[in-house]
Write a structure and sequence with these properties.
Elements (H helix, E strand, L loop, with lengths): L33 H12 L3 H13 L7 H12 L4 H13 L7 H13 L3 H13 L7 H13 L3 H13 L7 H12 L4 H13 L7 H13 L5 H9 L4 H18 L16
Amino acid sequence: MRSFIPIALLIISLGLPSAAAMAQDAPQPQALSADDLHKLTEKAEKGDAAAQENIGLIYATGQGMPQDYAEAAKWFRKAAEQGNTSAQGGLGALYENGAGVPQDYAEAMKWYRKAAEQGNVTAQSNLAFMYNQGTGVPQNYTEAEKWFRKAAEQGSPFAQINLGGMYNVGTGVPQDYAEAMKWYRKAAEQGNAHAQGDLGLMYVSGQGVPQNYEEAYAWFSVAAAQGDNNAPKGRDFAATFLSPNDLSKAQQLAKKYFADYVKHPSDTSPNPLAPQQ
């Protein structure tokens, strides 16, 4: 059984590097027209927090303006000081990575916490990750579990898979394979390929669920189709335990899961620059 991968849940739309996987909780922004950008900038300069956060995001991503993390930090800070949770999380990510500001884990924790305590799901996951890794704070699995759970209960697949991983290996919580399955499934059904692969492993091993090679084959197949590098080996292993008839059933099940649980580009919001409070 592979253990969970702690996921650095930085805002993916910032395009910041991370030693682990990055979250997709925050939407990728779309470029604005010159007129819309001008209007947004005017609002930001007049103190509108949502506009300031969006300008910061535009500078961070280089969508409509040259990428400039220092400018992103400036605008995120203006919005963050007004209580905008997305800007607080964005500023925390910049401090964690040293992008546009000196790297400062204490500042990253400060801004993540401000946003997390107001319910920002990405910040909750980032805060959990820092506690999980002991980055900027003493390592504390209890705090990591607490914040991963808050984000997971809001529907973050990246928090769900991490919480499932904690139950799988018994880190910060009693080992409980059924709980691990529960959270892996929630993430898998939102299209998370790693969680789909983990479901396959759980079905192969019969941990937290009755052993079922058809289910394992189906979940491994979906994970493999989404680029999980370990999934093809799991799929082929599960296939060795299936009769031709059962293999056909498993392949049909995989098609159903692919249709139901793989996100497509058309599923994304047409207005990803809408303010996120």
